[in-house]
Amino acid sequence: LFFAEALDDEDTFKILIATDVHLGYLEKDAIRCNDSYNTLNEILKCAKTNQVDFILLGGDLFHENKPSRRCLHSCITMLRQYCMGDSPIRFNILSDQTVNFNTTQFPWVNYQDENLNISIPVFSIHGNHDDPTGAEGLCALDLLSASGLVNHFGHSHSVERIEISPILLQKGSTKLALYGLGSIPDERLYRMFVNNQVTMLRPKEDQDKWFNLFTIHQNRSKHGPTNYIPEQFLDDFLDLVVWGHEHECLIAPTRNEQQLFYVTQPGSSVATSLSPGEATKKHIGLLRVKGRKMNLHKIPLKTVRQFFIQDVVLGDYQDLFTPDTPHATKKVEEFCYAKVTEMLEEAERERLGCPLTPEKPLIRLRVDYSGGFETFNTSRFSQRFVDRVANPKDIIHFLRRREQKEDIKDEVNVDYGKLIKTAAVEGLRVEDLVKQYFEAAEQKVQLSLLTEQGMGKAIQEFVDKDEKDAIEELITYQLEKTQRHLQARGVTTEQDIDAEVLFRDSKKNTTEEENEIREAMNRARAHRLERGDNALDADILDELAEPMDSDEGSVPFPAPTRGRGRGSRGRGGRGRGRGEDCKLMFSKFIEECRCDTRQ
Amino acid sequence: LFFAEALDDEDTFKILIATDVHLGYLEKDAIRCNDSYNTLNEILKCAKTNQVDFILLGGDLFHENKPSRRCLHSCITMLRQYCMGDSPIRFNILSDQTVNFNTTQFPWVNYQDENLNISIPVFSIHGNHDDPTGAEGLCALDLLSASGLVNHFGHSHSVERIEISPILLQKGSTKLALYGLGSIPDERLYRMFVNNQVTMLRPKEDQDKWFNLFTIHQNRSKHGPTNYIPEQFLDDFLDLVVWGHEHECLIAPTRNEQQLFYVTQPGSSVATSLSPGEATKKHIGLLRVKGRKMNLHKIPLKTVRQFFIQDVVLGDYQDLFTPDTPHATKKVEEFCYAKVTEMLEEAERERLGCPLTPEKPLIRLRVDYSGGFETFNTSRFSQRFVDRVANPKDIIHFLRRREQKEDIKDEVNVDYGKLIKTAAVEGLRVEDLVKQYFEAAEQKVQLSLLTEQGMGKAIQEFVDKDEKDAIEELITYQLEKTQRHLQARGVTTEQDIDAEVLFRDSKKNTTEEENEIREAMNRARAHRLERGDNALDADILDELAEPMDSDEGSVPFPAPTRGRGRGSRGRGGRGRGRGEDCKLMFSKFIEECRCDTRQ
């Protein structure tokens, strides 16, 4: 699917991909007020410099649903500056534009409007931050759309069913089908997928000649049983999915081995929370598509404020201090001071020769003070960094693992003993846990829980294709991948594996919605059984491969980040949404083991 | 100055003038929600049909400072629909556009932007409803401006001094200097005028060849001592002033005999209060300028909802009922029912053959129930008109003249006896009152009060021109005009003349601002005395000619209407602003006389 040489010829689409610009984020902050603006400017400039054919945005161009006047004004101004001009557009649109661009009274692509001279068309879906509201179902993007500065697409007006009709683009011999779906509440979209209410239309002729690109703005990481969109739900005829909403930059395309498409997650261009995912270096992508091959070149963003995050467990430094050391708190504070200073020095080194990067970095030090330590006065601490750090007030984040576990315990009331019979869990490998689960599950009613998770449309189609054998392979693959994945992150059974991701008990919280889904699942299972297909769902296994949610819940909406930090993990109290009802089984078990080992 | 034949030739500017569109007014009302939108559509369509050279808007295009998404979206859509296209623009701009259009990063007229195909340029100042706010000093208009849909001009960024630099337009041999000044709080602008801080720049060459057009958005009628802009403040080289903000349509140009310019007050295109001024039929203007001659053709707006207002004084119908009549209240209600029905019938007759006019009119019946009558239940009354009237809930407005007077009395604590020595005021003519005032004033310190009102820059220039003789003529003229004016409106001394307009005592409320003004006035007077010019100020006399404020105070901002209703007048409790401190002298006196006569 990939091609190495990045040739810009008459058959190659050159597309700038970016998402989650969050224009206007912290625009009233004394230090960070211009960050999101500077970065949009950089992105548009980059598009112009690279003479791209078009810009593709994955939603949340605006941070606020009702952007401020400054925000709209700046956005309009920048788009007019960079995206209007004389450069000719070298591709055509073959699809019915009145279907593609259905949010304005000008249902055609802006560059074909005879009154506008567009040099770089922008195609954008809306995100959850700038989603349509009100009786008119208009979003902030529609103001740009009405002005002719942006082509808003992927807005489904029906709540009954979604039919995604692609924009069919042709440049030379390359045919690009651009699908988009603006943000929809995850649970609702999940249900619609499960109920076969989501359809992606395909051109009738030359189906295999089209490069199929899909832009979506949903949770990719799991925030609850149905509070995300499993990649498996997406049609497998797709070639590339540009996944918006998730803020961590994972822009290098990863292959979904079940669906056989690639997913690129550009990530936000501004950090809207101080979680590990946001600390990953921010990029945008220069995507080239020629025929059915693609090449994604990632471009680091220079105007993005640096963000360093580090975790320290005070208990790990017994040579320096214990809770009983005289002036322990003072010593801890100085220790943290040194850590922050270190990060600042690293930031300064990295910033050398980057005049566009703002001077003051974002710094977060997460301090696990469990084991009897006391917290120190953070406001005094902040004062010492007020001239060097962009977020002096919230550098330090105190947390106690112990307490967190206790919080989790309160939520756990399932009899996990039935499942895990052996008490000697230490040393148990992940695959053993998984295997054990399946063994247990097959004997019990909990099989239904399994199928609930996995029986999406895509899976069903997968089965329908008589590729049943593939499922077994898939399970094996997933197990291996999961193990590699966890190992790569240093996760062993000694660590508190977030079992929310592994298993859950959905007997509680049987809301109407979930019942609906369960029924659909049962129907699907019946269908499979009828076909004599007893293979287990692969989806549950795939979930093991999902990075765990380490969002700190510092954003107002369902946590958009997908944190994989710098070797550290935290659990947010918020950001779990409906997942709060999930019952954690293994995690508690393992945590208790670890506690035993440690203390 | 006028020319009769309306020729559209290559030397004739054709300008559509409109103001106070108040887009978005009552957009959530079930009945009136589309009114402002339909009328903007009509205005733009009219501009297109008439193939005007440009549209000139006098402010308050938007009703809300932060218009709703629907509002912005509709406005953008309509402007794009009507003002973009292939019709060529047949005039040039000779002035420095970076000075004229200073609110965006595109400081040039939109039709000269090579990326936009503009068929009808819109030039607009901002009003008080859509005025600039925030650190950036941006207003809603600037969003349109940044999008290239409107040319926002007349925005002064300094609070120290205002320099109005005209847009110099040329079409064929006609030279048009377009001046504009966006809304500024009246008191501040008043003070700036008085302090010579307002300058209008003029082209150095061929000064007498330019037609000078000025657009302003301020109180024209007096809402307080300095809470309006006297026409005399405006430079006399002007030919025509397009006065925004005032909602009453007085579009036929009226000559200011002192300044020798004409004023056209197009009025709002939607009624935003149920005051008499809003009941005047709404129009926009088609202004033609050729050389230094003009022709203003008024065009009635068809989409405007009809508004009928009527006053009844229950005490005037003693043949029908008195407070002692059995079932008097019931009879009064039926009487009012008949009156409203009458108005509805009139509305229906008028609406015949006007398919664009909304079906349900606005109806207001002001019922003076003084003299012992009781009010009836208006909600029950409203119920009877719910299907026929657009504002069923507030058709009836009960008021008592007596009570109003008492309200006024509370505000009056000046010893007016000193001024008016004769008790037999009845039959006193207006000019006698004025004469008497001047006689008294000259003997007293109150002379300073007089000069405070009048010593604007324009007057000073007038004097500087050694046209002193003209002042006496002017006084005579104004006296006669005032008398005609009052007589035309049926005002005699028996009626409660609003003496706020006549005189006031400024000894109280000597805020810093007013002191400043007084000092400037004193300087100016000293200057005049130095020149040996003892003529009285003409301005105070001119004020007699000002129509009285009959705004009901039902608008959130300083009352924008300039009510001259259908033969009736009310006094709002609000809308007087700083004028509340003014002391009413004659009015109280005269009212008391009337009371004596009546009872």
Automatic annotation (TrEMBL), chains A, B:
<dbReference type="InterPro" id="IPR041796">
    <property type="entry name" value="Mre11_N"/>
</dbReference>
<dbReference type="InterPro" id="IPR038487">
    <property type="entry name" value="Mre11_capping_dom"/>
</dbReference>
<keyword id="KW-0464">Manganese</keyword>
<comment type="function">
    <text>Core component of the MRN complex, which plays a central role in double-strand break (DSB) repair, DNA recombination, maintenance of telomere integrity and meiosis. The MRN complex is involved in the repair of DNA double-strand breaks (DSBs) via homologous recombination (HR), an error-free mechanism which primarily occurs during S and G2 phases. The complex (1) mediates the end resection of damaged DNA, which generates proper single-stranded DNA, a key initial steps in HR, and is (2) required for the recruitment of other repair factors and efficient activation of ATM and ATR upon DNA damage.</text>
</comment>
<dbReference type="GO" id="GO:0000014">
    <property type="term" value="F:single-stranded DNA endodeoxyribonuclease activity"/>
</dbReference>
<dbReference type="GO" id="GO:0030870">
    <property type="term" value="C:Mre11 complex"/>
</dbReference>
<dbReference type="GO" id="GO:0097552">
    <property type="term" value="P:mitochondrial double-strand break repair via homologous recombination"/>
</dbReference>
<feature type="domain" description="Mre11 DNA-binding">
    <location>
        <begin position="294"/>
        <end position="462"/>
    </location>
</feature>
<feature type="compositionally biased region" description="Basic residues">
    <location>
        <begin position="563"/>
        <end position="576"/>
    </location>
</feature>
<keyword id="KW-0469">Meiosis</keyword>
<dbReference type="GO" id="GO:0006303">
    <property type="term" value="P:double-strand break repair via nonhomologous end joining"/>
</dbReference>
<keyword id="KW-0540">Nuclease</keyword>
<keyword id="KW-0158">Chromosome</keyword>
<feature type="active site" description="Proton donor">
    <location>
        <position position="129"/>
    </location>
</feature>
<keyword id="KW-0255">Endonuclease</keyword>
<dbReference type="GO" id="GO:0031573">
    <property type="term" value="P:mitotic intra-S DNA damage checkpoint signaling"/>
</dbReference>
<keyword id="KW-0227">DNA damage</keyword>
<feature type="region of interest" description="Disordered">
    <location>
        <begin position="546"/>
        <end position="580"/>
    </location>
</feature>
<dbReference type="GO" id="GO:0008296">
    <property type="term" value="F:3'-5'-DNA exonuclease activity"/>
</dbReference>
<dbReference type="GO" id="GO:0042138">
    <property type="term" value="P:meiotic DNA double-strand break formation"/>
</dbReference>
<dbReference type="GO" id="GO:0030145">
    <property type="term" value="F:manganese ion binding"/>
</dbReference>
<keyword id="KW-0378">Hydrolase</keyword>
<keyword id="KW-0234">DNA repair</keyword>
<dbReference type="Pfam" id="PF00149">
    <property type="entry name" value="Metallophos"/>
</dbReference>
<dbReference type="GO" id="GO:0000724">
    <property type="term" value="P:double-strand break repair via homologous recombination"/>
</dbReference>
<keyword id="KW-0539">Nucleus</keyword>
<dbReference type="GO" id="GO:0035861">
    <property type="term" value="C:site of double-strand break"/>
</dbReference>
<dbReference type="InterPro" id="IPR003701">
    <property type="entry name" value="Mre11"/>
</dbReference>
<dbReference type="InterPro" id="IPR029052">
    <property type="entry name" value="Metallo-depent_PP-like"/>
</dbReference>
<dbReference type="Pfam" id="PF04152">
    <property type="entry name" value="Mre11_DNA_bind"/>
</dbReference>
<dbReference type="GO" id="GO:0007095">
    <property type="term" value="P:mitotic G2 DNA damage checkpoint signaling"/>
</dbReference>
<dbReference type="GO" id="GO:0000723">
    <property type="term" value="P:telomere maintenance"/>
</dbReference>
<keyword id="KW-0479">Metal-binding</keyword>
<dbReference type="InterPro" id="IPR007281">
    <property type="entry name" value="Mre11_DNA-bd"/>
</dbReference>
<keyword id="KW-0269">Exonuclease</keyword>
<dbReference type="InterPro" id="IPR004843">
    <property type="entry name" value="Calcineurin-like_PHP"/>
</dbReference>
<comment type="similarity">
    <text>Belongs to the MRE11/RAD32 family.</text>
</comment>
<protein>
    <recommendedName>
        <fullName>Double-strand break repair protein</fullName>
    </recommendedName>
</protein>
